[in-house]
């Protein structure tokens, strides 16, 4: 397929992707681990995402992020995710809060060869990163986790935490909107071998948990120093934690330093900009999967956060593309029959 001058593009919609393994969290976790290894070994180019807020500034109503990457090694593919979120969607039934699309391209001919929905890939891989971070950061005897946010990523977070940390037996699933937590708990009942308890009181649940995971749309951080305790870990995919949590941590972990440090609303960036933490004191997810020590005692408190690695969207999309080709899934479209000019 790669290297051809045939301008054929395979279009995969969500239903095709699901048949191709989109909801296989074990597979996504494996791809996540492999992708971070490659990133740490310098086989991936992933410039920081470019953020376009509408209107401009931190008070955006919607945004679009452009996330290009090149994956070297045995894969040798280029790609981009066009990622978006809309505040209005959060209160509009029938449409997800975040909607993404991914394009895979041949780095030799630069022809695109696959376009696919990126929405559930984003949710799966975001939760897989949090699951991977939790695997290395949570105490070894973690049996109770509090997941805050029962939206799209809340659903995939249950899968990721259960798959990455098999010792977890109880999950408190929290949302400001208790009905959403109850609905997701009901959907997940009996699927993952854990007891899921819906609640709207995340702080009380967190006090009973060794692992706390934030996947909310909260604009103002609400997890402060009073949530911090020894023998625990907090993992956030959004902006739930205050700078005090970063400062209280025995170890801080980020998904990708070069990128997260460009986003000024991230607690870790604010602590770094204030000169209160150095790059050398922070571990990246690549460090974890490449064997750098992270948790050295169960008594430590560890904080981990992420902003999202575009390269991971592309490695997951490529795996789904390969499965889809084998299974004959998707719709073929063409850029042209014959290019008008060359
Ligand atoms: N780090 C990454 O790679 C990455 C990638 C994609 C999305 N995200 C972030 O993940 C977050 C969740 O996205 P989603 O698509 O699941 O959104 P969603 O709208 O489907 O769900 C978010 C849920 O959070 C709940 N919530 C908001 N504030 C809360 C609070 N203070 N306490 C408890 N619950 C609260 C909402 O009621 C909602 O149910 C967003 O902030 C998004 O930006 C991160």
From TrEMBL:
Gene3D superfamilies in the record: NAD(P)-binding Rossmann-like Domain (3.40.50.720), ornithine cyclodeaminase, domain 1 (3.30.1780.10)
Database matches in InterPro entries: NAD(P)-bd_dom_sf, ODC_Mu_crystall, ODC_N
Source superkingdom: Bacteria
SUPFAM superfamilies (alphabetical): NAD(P)-binding Rossmann-fold domains
Pfam families: OCD_Mu_crystall (PF02423)
CC per GO annotation: cytoplasm
Entry protein name: Ornithine cyclodeaminase family protein
Organism encoding this protein: Dysosmobacter segnis
Organism lineage string: Bacteria, Bacillati, Bacillota, Clostridia, Eubacteriales
């Amino acid at each position: 397929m790669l290297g051809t001058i045939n301008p054929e593009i395979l279009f995969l919609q969500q239903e095709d992707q699901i048949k191709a393994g989109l909801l296989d969290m074990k597979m996504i976790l494996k791809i996540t681990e492999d992708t971070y290894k490659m990133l740490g070994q310098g086989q991936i180019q992933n410039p920081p995402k470019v953020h376009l807020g509408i209107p401009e500034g931190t008070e955006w109503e919607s945004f679009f992020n452009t996330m290009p990457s090149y994956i070297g090694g045995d894969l040798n593919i280029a790609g981009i995710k066009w990622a978006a979120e809309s505040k209005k969607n959060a209160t509009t039934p029938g449409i997800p809060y975040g909607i993404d699309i991914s394009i895979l391209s041949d780095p030799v001919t630069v022809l695109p060869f696959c376009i696919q929905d990126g929405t559930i890939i984003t949710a799966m891989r975001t939760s897989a990163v949090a699951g991977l971070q939790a695997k290395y950061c949570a105490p070894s005897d973690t049996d109770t986790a509090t997941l805050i946010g029962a939206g799209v990523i809340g659903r995939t977070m249950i899968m990721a935490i259960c798959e990455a940390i098999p010792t977890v037996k109880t999950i408190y699933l929290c949302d400001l909107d208790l009905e959403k937590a109850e609905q997701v708990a009901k959907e997940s009942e009996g699927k993952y071998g854990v007891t899921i308890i819906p609640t709207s009181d995340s702080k009380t649940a967190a006090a009973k948990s060794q692992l706390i995971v934030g996947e909310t749309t909260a604009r103002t951080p609400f997890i402060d120093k009073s949530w911090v305790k020894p023998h625990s870990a907090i993992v956030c995919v959004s902006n739930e934690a205050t700078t005090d949590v970063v400062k209280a941590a025995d170890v801080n972990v980020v998904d990708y330093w070069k990128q997260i440090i460009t986003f000024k609303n991230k607690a870790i960036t604010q602590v770094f900009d204030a000169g209160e933490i150095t790059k050398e004191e922070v571990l990246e997810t690549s460090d974890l999967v490449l064997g750098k020590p992270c948790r050295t005692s169960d008594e430590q408190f560890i904080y981990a956060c992420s902003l999202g690695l575009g390269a991971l969207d592309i490695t997951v999309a490529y795996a789904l593309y390969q499965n889809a080709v084998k299974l004959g899934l998707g719709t073929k479209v063409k850029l042209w029959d014959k290019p008008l000019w060359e």
